[in-house]
Design brief:
Blueprint (H helix, E strand, L loop, with lengths): L14 E3 L5 H5 L1 H14 L15 E6 L14 H8 L9 E6 L4 E5 L5 H7 L19 E3 L5 H4 L15 E5 L1 H9 L3 H6 L3 E5 L6 E4 L2 E8 L8 E7 L4 E5 L12 H6 L3 E5 L21 H8 L4 H4 L2 E4 L13 H8 L3 E2 L4 E4 L1
Parallel strand pairs: 4-5, 5-6, 6-7, 11-12, 12-13, 13-14
Antiparallel strand pairs: 1-15, 2-3, 2-15, 3-4, 8-9, 9-10, 10-11
Bound molecules: zinc ion (2 copies).
The site of one zinc ion has 8 residues, from helix 3.
Length: 347
């Protein structure tokens, strides 16, 4: 079974894997169970039955694929044929949930096309109590990195054709908020008061609780509609970095190593494993740091630093989608890991 090849380093940073029994996760239980055992054994903090901490804020990973998801539409190549034959390999589009059990509040990072399934994954992790009358807001806020399709189009599920809930703060850059409020169908979400615009300022922390904040960091990334951001999440004890899209490490004004040094876990752009992944396509037009480049760059870091890295936003062509692949083994051998839906990281 493929579960035997999973990333045992997760226990070193206190990541546990859990999952409410939604259909997709149930199919993957063979992969998840060994991690659940490891995560619980290594994390003595007070925990709910589902593995999440009861006292401190935590991040739950809701999705790990590039914008098109995995398998990707109409892909008949071996990458996606493998996922259709082995559903535990499938991945929802990149998304995180930040939960504060002390207040029962929760915040969504990225509204993906898979939001409907991801809300099932989020069940039991904060949010409105079951049976609450009306259409209570599903989240206490939604943070968006940028306006590429995998990162915001799930907002459609919040409109009048679907949930149509009470107001939710939409945290985005000035350009992101302007884009949404001036273009249909998104503008209707604001006019109908399902969303409230909450434009953020780069580098300025947004306080969610006295000891919990989110700081947007500007990153270079193709700017078709908006600029792009990463988020640093600071909790009472630990911090996390969420950086799903960036052109190349060298094009960032910050050194990724410096940012990594200031956090305890980092979900980093792992879109492509290497440069030969999309035959016939100019990969310079869709720049991302190849995982092989990141492995080489981070080789100089201490083991403690490398253990923080979790690659996320994997394209369907990325062989590391399969933990049993040579690519998956190479990442683990380098002391890093690949993010999985259901991962929990306590802050
Ligand atoms: Zn993306
Ligand atoms: Zn494919």
């Amino acid at each position: 079974m493929k579960g035997g090849t999973t990333d045992y380093r997760w226990r070193d940073v206190g990541i546990a894997t859990l999952g409410p029994m939604n259909a997709r996760l149930r199919r993957r239980l063979v992969l998840v169970l060994p991690l659940l055992a490891l995560g619980c054994a290594a994390a003595p903090r007070e925990r709910q039955a589902n593995g999440a901490p009861t006292q401190q804020p935590y991040v739950l990973v809701l999705g790990t694929a590039q914008d098109g998801g995995y398998p990707q539409i109409a892909c008949d190549r071996p990458c996606c044929a493998a996922a259709r034959a082995a559903p535990w390999l499938t991945r929802g589009v990149v998304s995180l949930l930040l939960v504060d059990p002390r207040s029962n509040k929760r915040w969504l990072f990225e509204a993906t096309p898979d939001l409907r399934d991801q809300l099932e994954l989020a069940r039991g992790h904060g949010g409105p109590a079951p049976g609450t009358a009306g259409r209570p807001a599903l989240f206490d806020g939604i943070f968006l990195t940028h306006a590429h399709i995998g990162h915001y189009t799930g907002l459609a599920h919040l409109g009048r054709e679907a949930y149509g809930g009470e107001e939710t703060s939409l945290f985005g850059s000035r350009r992101m908020v302007d884009f949404l409020t001036t273009h249909g169908p998104w503008s209707l979400l604001f006019e109908d008061r399902h969303l409230t615009a909450a434009p953020f300022t780069p580098d300025a922390p947004i306080a969610l609780a006295p000891d919990l904040s989110v700081t947007p960091l500007r990153v270079p990334h193709r700017e078709e509609f908006t600029d792009a951001y990463a988020f640093r999440i600071d909790g009472p004890s630990r911090s996390a970095l969420f950086l799903p899209d960036i052109d190349k490490w060298e094009r960032w004004e910050r050194a990724i190593e410096d940012v990594l040094a200031g956090v305890d876990v980092a979900w980093l752009d792992g879109t492509f494993f290497g440069p030969d992944e999309l035959p016939g396509r100019d990969m310079a037009s869709i720049p991302h740091p190849f995982i092989v480049e990141s492995l080489a760059r981070f080789e100089q870091l201490t083991e403690e630093e490398r253990t923080k890295v979790r690659f996320i936003h994997l394209n369907h062509s990325n062989p590391a989608t399969d933990p049993a692949s040579d690519a998956g083994r190479a990442i683990r051998a380098a002391g890093m890991g690949v993010a999985r839906e259901g991962d929990v990281f306590a802050l």
